[in-house]
Amino acid sequence: MNESIRTAAISPLRQRLIDDMTMRRFSRETQRNYIRDVGRFATFLRRSPDTATAEDLRCFQIEQRDAGVPTPTMNSIVSALRFLFTHTIDRPDLARKLVRVGYPRNLPIVLSRDGAARYGTMKLATDEFIRRFLLHVLPRGFHRIRHYGLLASAGCKANVERARALLAVAPVAAPVAAPAEPVEQPDPRPPFPCCGGRMLIIETFQRWMQPRAPPASQAATGTVTP
Fold first, then answer.
1. How many domains does the chain have?
2. Which of 55, 71, 132, 203 pairs with 104 at a CA distance of 20 to 30 A?
3. CA distance 184 to 188
4. 84, exposed or middle or buried, with CB in 10 Å at 0-12, 13-18, 19+?
5. Contact 61, 74 (CB under 8 A)
6. Is the full-model pTM beyond 0.85?
């Protein structure tokens, strides 16, 4: 729920400005800044801003420049006055007379030209890009530890060896692994259910093969051999 800014002895024009900003859901900080900037113009004009002319706006901006007002502050005042004349007073012709001052914005130098020339553009498939991106994503509850200085990953081994040499510290000998004891392999043969002895596997059938019974004897078939 938005609350409008209330002050003592508020003028009808200021109340209308507050209502217009509240209707458009401006934040309280934005409303406070716009009221302050419109008040600067009213102090310069020494009368109500709804009686201002194009020449008044021109003189106001010249006075700000001569007073050394920073450029971002001047542009912020322009935004407040444009809102006032466009939406509250309904004088868009005066809003167009306000001049927004341009100024260079310097970006930080991350890489020099020689350093940037070492890098190129690479096109990756979607799954490969996701795979490389997820290499830098840690599971929940884990924290990445980055080492700097002597323990930096780029020259950690060389730095540690040099530090040991300067401190005359004997290198740490690698521990000698004890010979592994032979591990008795478990017998894969299943035990006999009666005596517990191991069954003797005569033949193993493949999964797709069916076991074939031995041929029946001649006596069992009832044939007589001469």
1. 1
2. 55
3. 12
4. buried
5. yes
6. no
